[in-house]
Amino acid sequence: MKKLFGTISILCLVVCITFISCKQSEAGKTSQGQSASQTVHQDANVQTENTTASTSQGSQQGTEGQSAQGSAQGSSTQQATSQQQQGQQQGQTSPANTQQTPSQQDTVPRRKIGEIVFFDGTVTIARKGATVKNVQIGDTVYTFDVVTTGPKSKLEIDLAAGTPGGGIVKLTENTSFYFDTKVLDNGARKTVIQLLAGAVQVKVDKLANGSFTIATDAATLGVRGTLFIVDTIPDGTMMVTCAEGFVSVKTEDGDDVRAPAGSAVIVQDGNPVKKDMPPESLIGFRNDWRKAMYDAFASKALNYTTMYAGIVDSQTSKLLSALQKLRSHQAILDMWANDKASGKEPRFTDYMTEKKTIAPALFEVLTALFAIERPYYRLLELKALHASGIGTGVMKDGRSTTAYFSDFDTKTQAVVTAMAEAREALKLFAWAAAGSPLGNFFGAKADSLGTGNLFFDEEF
After folding, report:
1. Residue 458 CB contacts under 8 Å (≥ 6 apart), including other chains
2. Which of 8-17, 144-153, 444-453 comes out lowest in average pLDDT?
3. Burial class, 194, CB count within 10 angstroms (exposed 0-12 / middle 13-18 / buried 19+)
4. Which of 110, 114, 149, 408 could covalently link to 153 via disulfide, CB atoms 3.0 to 4.6 Å apart?
5. Mean pLDDT across 246-253
6. What is the pTM (predicted TM-score) of this model?
7. Is 257:272 a contact under the CB 8 Å cutoff?
8. Gap between the Cα atoms of 349 and 353, Å rounded
């Protein structure tokens, strides 16, 4: 019995030892699995951090305007990284590795077309005969609103970014512009920007079709998915520097120069000159060019103040007189405004009698508008330069520049209101046209409207 009891005890001891060994082996495997999981998680974080750091380095290498674009991309990358890490910590699948369904993509909120996504300093908007000064992030800049940045100010506007033909527009100080954008019957987006003064950086998403056009004093720029900066000088000289894609530069004389990535095209006195350079040289070249051009312009500023002031004086009476004739058709404009506000989608056959009735008066208004708007907004830029001591003195008509600019805003408020009223009428007429080329209502006379004619053609 003692031998039997001893044998049983030994067997029990062996079983216990075996059981304990198995448990330790399983625990070791679990620990190794957790360790491996932590290593993969850490590697993913390191890779993400390296990506963010690389984006940050890229943003530091851009131009002054391009740097802001790079910074925005870096910020987006950091936000995506934070969301990815948060999802991993919650045991969720990383968004970067998840394919969204079309229904999920549709639920992602998009910004409004014309939404202000950033601004710093002073920004004003001329709209429907009034001036909006209390601008906030999230506000909408509507088509044909004129946006102006003051000294040491900047602004960023979303024009349907993320869609073909959409983009982001960034304004530097002392810049004025307005735009029109719409989707045509074939699904293509057409965007026209009138750059009245100053400089803009534009990032345009690739266009499958459609057009994105920028008009300046010296040339018209046709864009096909690219990143570029347009600088204008108060004497009308223009330069485009292209960092990605290409820009087609068309002068009034019909010259067409293509600016690919890593190049600049300068148009001065109607003559386009292309300069090729390594992409990393664009920053320094642009900064040096701007400084040299503004230094050279300083001695001419007084003459240009005299010239632009004379144009504004002579064209103001013409614009006000033309608007008085247009107001005799106010009932038509009010009807269009009410129908538009109610959500009506007109057909091109609608309002044919009204459109033919109002077209002659509207054409006279637009002729005066496009003649006065650039000189006026150039004077705003010259006013800012005058405050720094550039262009001071006595104009050819005997007026002192100090006296002229001291109450400039008050004296020209009627002009600003009239120009806004004219653009609102154009906006309503374009809505009533329902996609039919506006030039059809003006005939060959539309060509006399200069870059304003870009609003009337369906193709560029």
Report:
1. 184, 190, 435, 437
2. 8-17
3. buried
4. 149
5. 91
6. 0.74
7. yes
8. 10
